[in-house]
Specification:
The structure is a single chain. The chain is 59% helix and 0% strand. The chain is mainly alpha-helical. The protein has one domain. The chain is elongated, with a radius of gyration of 18 Å.
Length: 71
């Protein structure tokens, strides 16, 4: 698989994970607001398996390195 296809696949995977996590977060906030409006502002949400944190910083191709060296 060419490198650009791999990057495209990873970007799509990250988009899908972020979309799923955001959808669950919004549902959680709506439910919390309906159940307990007074404490809704203090509620927290754990993304769990819908976290895209492990995909951050995967972009280490030649163009990225060249840009960092200039600074």
């Amino acid at each position: 698989m060419p490198p650009h296809d791999d990057k495209r696949r990873l970007r799509k995977l990250k988009r899908d994970i972020k979309r799923a996590g955001n959808r669950k977060r919004r549902q959680h906030l709506k439910q919390t607001l309906a159940d307990n409006p007074e404490a809704a502002s203090e509620s927290t949400f754990e993304f769990g398996r819908d976290s895209s944190r492990f995909l951050n910083g995967n972009d280490h191709d030649a163009t990225r390195r060249r840009h960092e060296e200039e600074e």
